[in-house]
Amino acid sequence: MFTIDDLADRLGGYLPSEEIQQVRRAFYYAEQAHDGQTRRSGEPYVTHPLAVANILANMHMDHQSLMAAMLHDVIEDTGVTKDALASQFGEAVAELVDGVSKLTQITFEDKAVAQAENFQKMVMAMSQDIRVIIVKLADRLHNMRTLGALRPDKKRRIARETLEIYARIAGRLGINTIRVELEDLSFQAIHPMRAERIKRAVARARGNRRTTMRQIQTSLQRRLDEDDLTGSVVGRQKHLLSIYRKMHDQRKPFAEIMDVFGFRIITDDVDNCYRILGAVHNLYKPVPGRFKDYIAIPKANGYQSLHTTLFGPSGMPIEVQIRTREMEAMANNGIAAHWLYKAGQTERPIAVGSHARAREWVRGLLEMQRHAGDSLEFIEHVKNDLFPDDVYIFTPKGDIMELPQGATAVDFAYTVHTDIGNSCIACRIDRHLAPLSTPLESGQTLEIITAPGPGPISPGSTS
Predict the structure, then answer these.
(1) Is residue 303, in this structure, part of any structural domain at all?
(2) Could you say which of 6, 9, 35, 76 is catalytic?
(3) 3-state SS record for 2-43
């Protein structure tokens, strides 16, 4: 079992001994406060805050965040007050704990209102200290890892909330290590059989592809060495939910998705990134239109990398991402990289920039909150912000359908019902006839026109 001594050893790699000692103090305080309390699994309750702190340690978060992780449930679940925490551990830690405590689920008759109200509280807490949401994400991640003791219906409810809110926030803040795991754990809770089938298929496919992966990796590394370019080539694996989404949204078979070989090349500086791009384009021909420069134009969450797709041996597609070590830290830890570099007193512009972007995003959320009529209107504005890759389309009856970016009227028709998709012949976008292949944009009203075909849809009916 993971212990406080194990955590202290891990923290020794980046925190001074006096700060590690403060984290230890917070653990022993939490252990005493939660004495006699257990989790549904039967384990002592303190194993949960310790695990949350360990997740933050993997991200190299600062000692105050780790202390808040240890203490994040004491105000809510024990008799300890915020003032007591402030006197023991300082005002900053007490404020962090109070901020995380305020994000605890409150009960409403209407679940949509409950989620919206909770998100409003989250925004207020984030505006005080952005670390509140990082601690909360780590808390949610450990809860998702230990969902096994809950009823299936409760698992699904928590998993859906995790997908809709927490995984999206992790993505918006660039914390992709947490986002990916939250997505996969949620997928497994909502669709356990589908997740298990994909997992087994991925294991088989990886076994069959191992030799080819090794050959491509070796050829890429050899080309870097021949050109005296510093860089390490590693294989990149797709996660379960991304495979499922591609199969579902793009209607691709599993074999077609797994036919793409993914690699990441990590190097020292930006200049090397572009040199390596030239080297791999000399080795394998690039696929036209499949190059993206996120170094020159970073994503909104601070993500930076070069992306290219190559024609590999026998024409197989190879996706390559090229980035520096700092960009890799940003891609995995996002805003948390700000504290990673700060802890080592070597704060970098890329980490400072991520923190500034996150603060700007939270300020924007507060502005939305002030102008929204109620919490439900606010959450709709936020969803448009958190789901930048999705489009929201209205049916003629005013219902909203969510589709991936680039979706067409045919995708919409199949989303409504397979039979409508099979029998659609035309569509009206905002009451004007349009080709079925027209890419859809958020806010449009779409009417599908069908003709006689298989299934229960009557001739000439619309949806």
Answers:
(1) yes
(2) 76
(3) CCHHHHHHHHCCCCCHHHHHHHHHHHHHHHHHCCCCECCCCC
* Domain assignment of residue 381, yes or no: no
Q: What is the pLDDT of residue 99?
A: 83
Token couple for 358: 């996150």
Does 77 qualify as catalytic in the annotation?
Answer: yes
In this structure, the answer to whether residues 186 and 203 fall within a common structural domain is no
What is this structure's pTM? Answer: 0.71
Q: Which of 19, 31, 43, 77 is catalytic?
A: 77
Per residue in 18-55, pLDDT tens? 999 999 999 999 999 999 999 887 889 999 999 999 99
Place of tokens 């005080």: 128
In order, the DSSP letters of 225-259 are HHTT---EEEEEPPPHHHHHHHHHHS---HHHHHT
- The torsion defined by the Cα of 254, 260, 265 and 266, in degrees rounded to 10, comes to -20
Whether 216 and 181 map to the same domain: the answer is no
Q: How many separate domains does the chain show?
A: 3
Give yes or no: 35 in active site. Answer: no
- Looking at the fold, whether 134 and 203 belong to one and the same domain comes out as no
Domain that includes residue 417, residue range: 389-450
